[in-house]
Amino acid sequence: MLKFILRRLAMLIPVLLGVSFLVFTIMSLTPGDPVEMYLGDNYTHEAHAAMTHELGLDKPFFVRYLNYIGNAVQGNFGISYSTHQPVLAEIEARFPSTVILAISALIFAIVLGVLLGTISAAKQYSAFDSASTFAALIGVSMPNFWLGLMLIIVFAAGLGWFPSSEFSGVKSLVLPAIALGTNSLAIITRMTRSSLLETIRQDYIRTARAKGVKEYKVIIKHALRNAMIPIITISGLQFGFAISGAVVVETVFSWPGIGRLLVETIKLKDMPVVLAIVLIIAVSFTVINLIADILYAFFDPRIRAQYKTKKV
Question: In its keyword annotation, does this UniProt entry include Transmembrane helix (predicted)?
Answer without folding.
Answer: yes
